[in-house]
Write a structure and sequence with these properties.
By secondary structure, this protein is α/β, with parallel strands linked by helices. It is built from 8 helices and 5 strands, in the order βαβαααβαβααβα. Helices cover about 55% and strands about 15% of the residues. A 5-stranded parallel sheet has the order 2-3-1-4-5. The structure holds shikimate-3-phosphate. Shikimate-3-phosphate (S3P) binds next to loops. The site of shikimate-3-phosphate has 10 residues, from loops.
Length: about 180
């Protein structure tokens, strides 16, 4: 059974540090859409930070919360959804987003990602002795999922606002 696709929203997927939240906020402001960040929804709903959820309940509990939110998003309209970096690694999540969103993946190399996230401490998966090696391994593992996006945008040589303009252009072209 195939579900008819109705593009009402934009979903930004991609690895940590590719600019999903920053780009998503610019796109939402320009299009007069609502901005929603799945990590923020999880934190608001549980009253815990992502790091606390990973530490106290483990990653599978976090992934279950993500899955629940993705299922709820199907009723959204005019929303830019910024997703956690691991969310599309679950094929059900990606399939669900595709029914109502143009799915855009923001891309960057492991070195660029490391440069962007190295001063931050809120990502439990990168609290490792060798974070760059972890980024390389996780990105390689997830690349096939990210490549299933409708649009793949390299963010390395572009300012955030230019990436946002590209997203908007692709959205108009897809409507
Ligand atoms: C994760 C990415 C994070 C957050 C959590 C796990 C991942 O979101 O969901 O720390 O598995 O890549 P960002 O991509 O917004 O950093």
């Amino acid at each position: 059974m195939s579900t008819k696709r109705q593009i009402q929203n934009i979903a930004l997927i991609g690895f940590m540090g590719t600019g999903k939240s920053s780009v998503g906020q610019i796109v939402a402001a320009q299009l007069h859409f609502t901005f929603l960040d799945t990590d923020h929804v999880i934190e608001a709903r549980t009253g815990n930070t992502i790091s606390e959820i990973f530490a106290q309940q483990g990653e599978p509990a976090f992934r279950a919360l993500e899955k629940k939110i993705v299922a709820e998003l199907v009723t959204r309209k005019k929303t830019v959804i910024s997703t956690g970096g691991g969310l599309p690694a679950n094929p059900d999540n990606l399939a669900s987003l595709k029914t109502h969103c143009l799915v855009v993946c923001l891309w960057a190399s492991p070195e660029k990602i490391w440069e962007r996230v190295r001063s931050q401490t809120h990502r439990p998966l990168l609290q490792e002795p060798d974070p760059l090696a972890k980024i390389r391994a996780l990105l390689a593992e997830r690349e096939p999922c990210y490549r299933q996006a409708d649009v793949l945008l390299n963010t390395e040589a572009r300012a955030l606002k230019d990436v946002a303009l590209q997203v908007i252009h692709q959205y108009h072209a897809a409507k």
